[in-house]
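Quick check before the chapter quiz. The format below is the same one you will see on the exam, so make sure you can read both the input and the output lines.
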Amino acid sequence: LSISSQTKLLQFLESGTYFPLGEDSPKQADARIIVATNRDLNKLKANESFRSDLFFRLQTHHIHIPALRERRDDIPLLLEYFSSQAAAEFSVPAPTYTKPLYRALRHYDFPGNLRELRALIWDAVGNSLTGGSPSDLIIERLSFSDEMVDLATDTWLGDNLPTLHEATTSLIREALERSDGNISEAARTLGITPQALSQRLKRDKQCAGEDE
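Here is the expected output.
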C-alpha cells in the first residue's frame, strides 16, 4: 500500500468520509474495516514504509494468526479437510496418505502458508485421476524423497537425539553424496536454495578452520 493510499485510508478511518471516483463531493460511510497482511508491520513502520499513525489506528483490535509452520500439529487436520474438498470437486474418494508424507509435511516450512498446502493437495488429488499416488505426488512437489524423510526422522539410533547442528550436517552430507557433489541438485533435495546451501557449507568450513 503506497504512502498516499495509506494517508487516504487513515483519513477515511478518522472521518468516515471518502470521495467516490470522479466526484468532488465527499460521501459518508458506515462500515467496519478489516485489514490483513502477511508482512511485518513493525519492520515496515521502522523503515518508514508504513505510517505509524495508521499502524496505531489499526491496532484497535488485533488478531495474530500464526503461520502454518508455527502450528504444524494442524497439518493432519488441514490435510484431511482440503482432501475432502478436492475429492468432492473431482468426484473421487478422499485419498489416504502415507506416513512419509506426514513426516515430510512436518519438516516443510510452507513459505506459501495455507494456500500452498491447499494447492498441493488439490494438484495431487487432481493428478491422481491418472493413477498417481497423492502422497508421492506431494512429496515430489516438495522436493523430498521417502529416504530423506526417513533419514531426518527415523534413522537416529540410540537413546540420545543428535543436536540440530549434527542432524543438519548429516542431512547435507547425505544430499551431497547422492548428488555427487552437485550443489544445485543437493539444495533441491533438501528443499532450500543453492545460495543457502553454499552459505551453510562456507560457514561450516570456517567453523572447522577455527577449531583446528
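If your answer matched, good. The two ends are 52 Å apart (CA to CA).
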